[in-house]
């Protein structure tokens, strides 16, 4: 009985979240929040990885030989993949790798979290909207997903002495982050009543 | 989960390092290929092709215990990819180096080459040739050590593991582990009984690009066309010019094997080790005083600065001959010599962060 209740609540949350996502896509302001957040996250994520950073100046596009076969090749750590192309545009160097694809996925989740949170905030209180802050929970897993890819380098940058356990733990951060992002999305999505807009 | 220390850091200075060498003279293009400790005929391990030295260098503990101290630095085997097909450009065509950027220079077997630190920080190993001799130029960012090894017909790769924060290389012929600073084989997951032998070494000079180019205008420089999509304008650990990040703060990624608080962890020493012991001279003091004396084991040694390249060299001086220097010209007895060409037996010398040197050689004599 209790399980049915839990499953039922989950179904409601999923269906409300999906409906909210549709609304986010339709409303220009909510879509702006989602896309803006996602784009901002992606830039920060790539910067944290070092895949979008100042470099050696010039203009150049390089694609490594055997790029397709190297695309899924791990590099510096778990969920860190070998760049297969380099684009240099003046002072900025961009490295294309599977991390851009992963980053896009996480960025979409972060953007959707913030878009739905925006909806919850904009909806009239009469529609049964709860806390508008829950979407900001997304920032926590979003940070986790970023650190997953560049853990040891992050430790070095922060001057934190590591152990093998700490380094190993980084491999779990990315999937944990994705799960948390989905969880926070459902958390805020369930507060939006389809009739409320 | 054990996080033994946490240090948020603000950057303050550090140094440039200097490699250096024996008669394999990086400054003036000496022709001898290897160090005194490794100048004997090559032998091989397990019938494979890695040239090893006749004299085995001392280990700080037995090889199996060393293996137990290996930790994953994050990357998997070859996750940091060695450069196996390097290409070079002429000095005049280099547009990606600032005058103060560190390069690792070597003049050996008729070749004069510079390996930019900003490229090696992304690869750690370049499998190259100097003249007709196959070599590996290796760099560990976490210990500030650049060392050259003969490699025979095989190549070296980055294992992804660290001991004492120092790169563990592996050779692709036998898959033995070779901790870089120790230059000596230890067991690893791919070769559990490699035997205990040391690699044949040669020295490189850690020097600012402008100084290397000035002394060797005809040098070749490792090209950024490495076959990899890397951002060679970005050092993930910080910067040497100016000193920032890991190179300038007091943090290490992992606990060193041994610690000594007489000096800050990243202070640069020029060290030499043989079967008789280890000796280290503070680099900045050496550059200021031009010459320093000490003992390697019980043998008197003299260190001389080379102001042309901002580096120094260590020589055995058992007769304790008087050596004076102005940084460019060195007097031994009545005669004068270049700093890298004294009539004494040179000892393979390389720069290292104090924390790394002491961690591996806690019995070292040290002069600062």
Automatic annotation (TrEMBL), chain B:
Region feature Disordered, mapped onto this chain: 20-46
PROSITE patterns according to UniProt: PROKAR_LIPOPROTEIN, TAT
Family matches, as InterPro entries: DUF3179, TAT_signal
Residue ranges with Low complexity bias: 31-44
Name by which UniProt lists this protein: DUF3179 domain-containing protein
The species this protein was found in: Halosegnis longus
Lineage, top ranks: Archaea, Methanobacteriati, Methanobacteriota, Stenosarchaea group, Halobacteria
């Amino acid at each position: 009985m209790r399980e049915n209740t839990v499953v039922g609540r989950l179904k409601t949350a999923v269906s409300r979240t999906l409906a909210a996502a549709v609304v986010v896509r339709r409303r220009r302001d909510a879509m702006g929040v989602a896309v803006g957040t996602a784009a901002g996250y992606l830039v920060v994520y790539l910067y944290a990885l070092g895949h979008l950073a100042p470099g050696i100046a010039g203009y150049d596009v390089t694609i490594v030989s055997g790029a397709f076969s190297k695309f899924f090749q791990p590099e510096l750590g778990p969920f860190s993949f070998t760049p297969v192309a380099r684009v240099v545009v003046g002072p900025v160097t961009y490295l294309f790798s599977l991390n851009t694809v992963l980053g896009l996925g996480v960025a979409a989740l972060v953007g959707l979290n913030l878009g739905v949170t925006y909806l919850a905030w904009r909806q009239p209180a009469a529609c049964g909207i709860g806390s508008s802050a829950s979407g900001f929970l997304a920032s926590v897993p979003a940070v986790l997903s970023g650190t997953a890819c560049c853990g040891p380098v992050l430790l070095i940058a922060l001057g934190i002495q590591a152990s093998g356990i700490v380094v190993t733990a980084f491999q779990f951060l990315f999937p944990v982050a994705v799960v948390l992002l989905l969880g926070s999305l459902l958390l805020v999505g369930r507060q939006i009543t389809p009739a409320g807009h | 989960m054990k996080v033994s220390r946490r240090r948020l850091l603000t950057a303050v200075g550090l140094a440039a390092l200097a490699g250096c060498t024996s008669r394999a003279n990086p400054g003036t293009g000496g022709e001898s290929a290897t160090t005194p400790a490794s100048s004997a005929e090559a032998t091989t391990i397990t019938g494979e092709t890695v040239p090893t030295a006749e004299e085995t260098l001392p280990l700080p503990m037995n090889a199996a215990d060393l293996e137990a101290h290996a930790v994953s630095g994050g990357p998997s085997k070859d996750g940091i990819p060695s450069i196996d097909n390097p290409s070079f450009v002429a000095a005049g065509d280099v547009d990606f180096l600032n005058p103060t950027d560190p390069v690792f220079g070597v003049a050996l077997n008729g070749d004069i080459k510079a390996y930019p630190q900003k490229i090696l920080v992304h690869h750690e190993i370049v499998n190259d040739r100097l003249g007709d001799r196959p070599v590996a130029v290796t760099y560990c960012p976490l210990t500030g050590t650049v060392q050259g090894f003969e490699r025979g017909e095989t190549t070296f790769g980055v294992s992804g593991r660290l001991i004492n924060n120092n790169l563990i290389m592996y050779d692709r012929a036998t898959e033995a582990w070779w901790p870089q600073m120790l230059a000596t084989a230890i067991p690893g997951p791919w070769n559990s009984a490699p035997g205990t032998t040391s690699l044949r070494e040669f020295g490189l000079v850690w020097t600012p690009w402008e100084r290397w180019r000035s002394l060797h205008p005809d040098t070749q420089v490792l090209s950024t066309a490495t076959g990899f999509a890397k951002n060679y304008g970005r050092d993930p650990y910080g910067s040497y010019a100016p000193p920032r990040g890991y190179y300038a703060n007091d943090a290490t990624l992992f606990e060193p094997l041994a610690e000594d608080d007489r000096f800050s962890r990243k202070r640069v020493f020029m060290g030499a080790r043989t079967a008789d012991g280890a000796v280290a001279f503070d680099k900045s003091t050496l550059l200021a005083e031009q010459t320093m004396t000490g003992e390697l084991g019980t043998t008197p040694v003299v260190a001389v600065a080379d102001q042309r390249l901002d580096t120094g060299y260590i020589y055995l001086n058992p007769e304790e001959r008087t050596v004076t220097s102005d940084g460019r010209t060195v007097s031994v007895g009545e005669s004068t010599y270049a700093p890298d060409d004294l009539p004494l037996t040179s000892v393979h010398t390389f720069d290292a962060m104090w924390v790394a040197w002491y961690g591996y050689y806690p019995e070292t004599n040290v002069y600062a």
